[in-house]
Amino acid sequence: MRKLKKNGVERMNESRRDFLKISAVTAVTLALSNKPFLLWALEPVANVENPLAYYPNRDWEKIYRDQYRYDRTFSWVCSPNDTHACRALAYVRNGIIIRSGSEYNYETYGDLYGNKATQNWNPRQCAKGFTFHRLMYGPYRLKYPLVRRGWREWADAGFPDLTPENKTKYKFDSRGTDQLEKATWDEAYTYIANGIMSIAKRYSGVEGKRKLLAEGYPEEMLAPMKGAGTRTMKFRGGMGLLGVFGKYGMYRLANTMALLDVNIRGVSEEGAMGGRAWSNYTWHGDQAPGHPWVHGLQNADCDFNDLRFSKLIIQDGKNLVENKLTDSHWFIECMERGAKLVTISPEYSPPASKSDYWIPIRPQTDAALFLGITRLMIDQGWYDKEFVAQFTDFPLLVRTDNLKRLRAADIFPDYKLGLSKNGPSFKYQGLKQEQYEKLGDFVVWDETKGAPVAITRDDVGKNLSKKGINPALEGSYKVKTVDGKEIEVTTLFSLYKIHLRDYDLDSVVEITKAPKDLIEQLAKDIAAIKPVAIHQGEGINHWFHATEMNRAAYLPLMLTGNIGQKGAGAFGWAGNYKAALFQGSAWTGPGFKGWVAEDPFHPNLDPQTPGKAINAHAYFRDEEPAYWNHGDRALIVDTPAEGKKVFTGSTHMPTPTKAMLFTNVNLINNAKHTYDMLKNVNPNVEMILSIDIQMTASIEYADIALPANTWMESEGLEVTASCSNPFLQIWKGGIPPIFDSKDDLVILSEIAAKLGDLTGDARFRDYWKFALEGKREVYIQRL
Questions:
Q1: Mean pLDDT per 10-residue section of the chain, whose length is 783 residues
Q2: Are 681 and 627 in contact (CB under 8 A)?
Q3: Which residue among 57, 242, 622, 701 has the highest number of C-beta atoms inside a 10 angstrom radius?
Q4: Residue 629 — φ and ψ, nearest 5°?
Q5: How far apart are CA 182 and CA 707, in angstroms?
Q6: Phi, psi (5° rounding) for residue 254?
Q7: Which CATH number goes with the domain that contains 506?
Q8: Domain identity same for 369 and 403
Q9: 3-state DSSP call for residue 362?
Q10: Residue 105: which region, alpha, beta or left (left: phi > 0; alpha: psi -120 to 50)?
Q11: What's the Cα-to-Cα distance from 31 to each of 35, 36, 37, 40, rounded to whole Å?
Q12: Can you give 662-673 as a three-state secondary structure string?
């Protein structure tokens, strides 16, 4: 150790070796002076072979394990608009939901006939369901009724006319800048009922029409009102299949307005008018618009387990990887089983990354792609001639003079319709005689007879063979009509070949910018592999030329017999077809219509009455919200050459929008060109009521906001179905409402009850009797 002197200060300078020596001596001295320490140090070390089995103190693990401890569980259904409707299990501790998970019991689900689902449906849950309780307890929940300050002041002033000055004074032209103030439920109901009554009075009769004309509404939009101010009220149950009673119940409220119309105008029930019911799917554009052109149904879908049978899966503008979260394992299992996957999309999407090959395509040219594939398959003879002849309309004869299908009555004198009443068209498909008389029977050219023969709708498949009919696929022929005129007819297949001349492979490549070799490969795969399924999504259906793209996708499937088989077909995944679960029949009654459109003047108040005894009478009228989203105007144009042209027909003519009531939908978020709606359209709407579970843009721009219970808090039973699984779900919540919220069905019934209280008309309460009494099971059983 040396002493160093720096700046007049002496410092000790130890080497590292010196320091270690001193430390060791100090440690030994301390140890020898401490007997317990000495004995512990001399104890032999225990030989612990498995440290997981031997641990001195494990109490700390209790903290870790307790985070998963729960007191009880309850079953609920996660039912957002992803169309999965997963049944989940909520875990509750001290009255608080701490987590959620799958039930793993789908194999126990069955129907009345004893059929059971399989374990393959397990598990069903995604991150939305796993974390939904966070939203429920989160900061954006709607906790109590809210009324916009300016709207309240306007209502308290007696609902004066909305002059430009009053729109500014009461902030109708700047709703988003106003304050939403807390209200009691009774206050909110009273304001809503008074608002509805005020609007109905203001726009009824001659004076109401004068006001609307002064606001610039065209005469064509006022005619459907027939003098009823209730027709200016628009009701929307957002994606109603997600909650058949609480969401579709909004349309029952629209029907309730017929009672108000009688009170306001003094008309009879025969002349009463309900509100307007706004659609969901058609405005969103989810439905495949080309499907009805092909098979007459609104949409074609399959339950997701059908994918297990597919050997070639083509995703065209569809993302089954990300958009079908809980059921995507069926898609993944196809990969494991050796199925071939193809994705058609402009971008390299998630499904493209899982596919055998990806066909990049110019947006909106999918129709040209499938038409080119169809031509290639026909030119190469890659099609099932027997299927095409027996199950498609390709053999039907078409008149070349007017390009209409040749009807049997056109060429066979005194022809009598040949469709049997016991056949599937009448017996199962619900064909009516007047419809059949309008459609008539068709004609094919029988190659065996060398002459035209009549066929009916039921003459398909083996039925054709039984009749000895051998229809020609190609050819043009001369036939005489019943009035002696000779005309030329040709098969639809021949006409398609003419149409497809424009879609040679080089032209299709130029139109679509898709690789030529991949187009050829897809045509070969469709021809060689069975079953084939084409899934088209909203990436197709929401945009221009969707009808043509839907129709063109069917052609390769029709050529190869990939229709009506497991794992085969063209599917849209919109889901509205499952509403058929609630459609009526001769033996069940009016079904769904019996709920939303039970006659409000003659409601059945006997809880034991079966559904088939319910009298349905729709006083409301359907309407597309697209017209509200089009400046609240119909498609009426002043043209330079022809003057005013009305493009909206009488069946779709909208009425002016003065009140908007909606639940379970963020209407403003749905709308296109939102700024225009907020600044130019909605200032003319006198009452906007939004019912939701959390703060949304629609709540922010509403006049009144009412808090609904979540799926976990629902105090009564609710029903839903899904487009991707076969399960009809019924459930209720398992914890009391956290805030001052209510079931949406209860909210709707109590709005009606308040209208009854203010008008003194007991029929309002009668119409919602079982909902008000907490006996919604009566309505469920009827449905």
A1: 44 54 55 51 66 71 86 94 88 95 92 92 89 94 98 98 97 96 98 98 97 97 97 93 92 98 97 95 81 86 89 93 83 88 94 95 96 98 96 97 96 95 90 93 96 95 92 96 96 97 97 98 97 90 88 97 94 71 79 94 96 94 95 94 93 97 93 93 98 96 98 95 86 96 98 98 98 96 89
A2: no
A3: 242
A4: -75, 0
A5: 11
A6: -60, -40
A7: 3.40.228.10
A8: no
A9: coil
A10: alpha
A11: 7, 9, 6, 10
A12: EECCCHHHHCCC
Following DSSP, what letter does each residue of 381-445 receive, concatenated? T-S-HHHHHHHSSTTSEEETTT--BPBHHHHSTT------TTSHHHHTS---HHHHHHH--EEEE
- For residue 116, what is the DSSP state? B
The Cα 733–Cα 711 span in angstroms is 6
**pLDDT value, residue 10:** 45
Query: Residue 232, exposed/middle/buried by CB under 10 A (0-12, 13-18, 19+)?
Result: buried
What is the sign of the dihedral through the CA atoms of 386, 389, 391 and 394?
Answer: positive
- For tokens 């979260």, name the residue: 325
Task: Assess whether 762 and 649 both reside in one domain.
Answer: yes
Count of all residues that appear for the chain in the document: 783
Residue among 101, 103, 90, 99 at smallest CA distance from 727: 103
H or E segment at 106?
Answer: none
Phi/psi of residue 229, nearest 5 degrees: -65, -20
My answer on whether 597 and 696 are in the same domain is yes
Is position 159 within any domain?
Answer: yes
Residue pair 359/372 in contact (Cβ under 8 Å)? The answer is no
Can you list the pairs that 214-223 forms with residues at least 24 positions away whose Cβ atoms lie under 8 Å? 215/656, 215/684, 217/633, 217/656, 218/633, 218/634, 218/636, 220/634, 220/636, 220/646, 220/648, 220/653, 221/633, 221/634, 221/653, 221/654, 221/655, 221/656, 222/655, 222/656, 223/653
pLDDT of residue 1: 44
Range of the domain at 8: 2-41
| Separation between Cα atoms, residue 210 and residue 229, nearest integer Å | 12
Nearest to 716 by CA among 773, 783, 782: 773
Report the SS3 class of residue 577: helix
The CA R_g of the chain, rounded to the nearest whole Å, is: 35
CB atoms within 10 A of CB 141: 18
| CATH number of the domain bearing residue 656 | 3.40.50.740
Confidence at residue 49, expressed as pLDDT on a 0 to 100 scale? 75
Torsions phi, psi of 729, nearest 5? Answer: -105, 140
Are residues 368 and 511 part of one domain?
yes
DSSP-derived secondary structure letter, 487: E
Same domain, 368 and 405: no
Would you say 473 and 481 are in contact if contact means Cβ atoms under 8 Å apart? no
User: Collapsing DSSP states into helix, strand and coil, what is residue 737?
Assistant: coil
Query: Does 181 share its domain with 324?
Result: no
CB 289 within 8 Å of CB 542 = no
Q: Which helix (H) or strand (E) holds 199?
A: helix 185-202
pLDDT at residue 634, as a whole number: 96
Own/partner long-range contacts of 302-307 (Cβ < 8 Å, ≥24 apart): 302/533, 302/569, 302/571, 303/724, 303/725, 303/726, 304/330, 304/331, 304/724, 304/725, 305/118, 305/120, 305/121, 305/330, 305/725, 306/533, 306/566, 306/567, 307/331, 307/333, 307/334, 307/533, 307/567
**Helix axis angle, 744-759 relative to 185-202, nearest 10°?**
60
Confidence (pLDDT) at 17 = 59
d(CA 134, CA 98): 9
What is the predicted pLDDT for the residue at 674? 92
Tokens of 227: 């003098």
In the chain, the number of structural domains is 4
Are 619 and 755 found together in one domain?
Answer: yes
- pTM equals 0.87
Residues 6+ apart with CB under 8 A from 115: none
Cα–Cα distance, 628 to 235 (Å, whole number): 12
| Same structural domain, 196 and 273 | yes
Within a domain: 609? no
Task: Please check whether residue 161 lies inside any domain of the structure.
Answer: yes
